[in-house]
Write a structure and sequence with these properties.
The protein has about 90 residues and is α+β, with helices and mostly antiparallel strands. It contains 2 helices and 4 strands; from the N terminus they run H-E-E-E-E-H. The protein has a 4-stranded antiparallel sheet, covered by helices on one side. A hairpin with a 5-residue loop joins strand 1 and strand 2. It is globular, with a radius of gyration of 15 Å.
Length: about 90
Amino acid sequence: MANALLGKKQQDHEYLYWEFHERGFQQAVRMGKWKAVRLAKDKPLELYNLADDPTEYTNVASKYPDVVAQIETYLKTARTDSPDWPIK
């Protein structure tokens, strides 16, 4: 992040992962033109093609099961439990 703020060359990443515990454990992945969102642990993954749909209006998960499967793998492997969370 510092390189981006300083205008320096940034490292390329295969994907970016984030989650929101304060919203009931939501997850998301950005991979190239794709963005996937899981709104709750028991909800299916939503997939958006940001090149064609930057407003994330149309969920295309059913049309791209291979992309969904790849992102599902990222969701399972990118997360690491922390002994410091939740804060006690």
